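Technical note accompanying the year-one report. For the benefit of new consortium partners, we illustrate the data format agreed upon in the data management plan: each record pairs a sequence with a structure-token string. No post-processing was applied to the example shown here.
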Amino acid sequence: MAPIVSFTSDQLNVWLVSYLWPFVRMMALVGSAPILGEAAVPRPVKVVIAVLLALVITPTLDAPPVVPLISVAGLWIMISQVLIGAAMGFSMRMVFAAVQVAGEYVGLQMGLSFASFFDPTSGGNTMVLARLLNVMAMLVFLSLDGHLMMIRILAESFHALPIADAPLARGGWSLLAAAGAHVIADGLMLALPLIATLLSLNLAMGILNRVSPQFSIFSVGFPITLLAGLGMLQLLMQYLAPFLALRFGAGFDLIPQFLQGLRR
């Protein structure tokens, strides 16, 4: 007869938490990270990706703390893993938020504020130009292997901040909040050349309207502004990828600093 395989409840608990807690952090990252966390990606696909990552990465990690799953400490570990994974994904989301802010700025200046549609990604109405720049940012992110770098940083995060029932320091959250304050500034820097050009054009047409009152500024102002904005946008497209590469690099550098801040 073949030997009967037996195990105790403690062994089952150790095996379960060794995969469950890393899976929770990975699931939170997959649900909040760019590309993988988009609303267009079905939820079962996100779960499958997190499960595959857990099966591959978990055997390389150190043994988790011996804490019962159904306990206050076990609940805190699960909550902390959700917070850590979501914050890591949010740190990269801020770059895409800056790009969307730039699209909103430029759309308002070009007179395209009425050209909006429902965006399932953000859950609200989004300007067409903001959506276009967001798609361009996703393509640049994929071309730089940003999704693979996110997975690598995820695997390294378990060594930088191992799973533990210790409280998380507030230094990491302060660092993340300070980085979020740069979203508006980065979006303005991206849109500044086009905004300056359109502002100069509007000032020129305003002066022309004062000098020649018979000049119908309303009939020609919008087409000129739109054409000038599209032409300037085409010129700026060649600088979009280098700018985003720097912002993505800053976002990837932020994650290790955030994890170190949580350990203090």
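Partners are asked to follow this layout when depositing records. The chain has one domain: 9-263.
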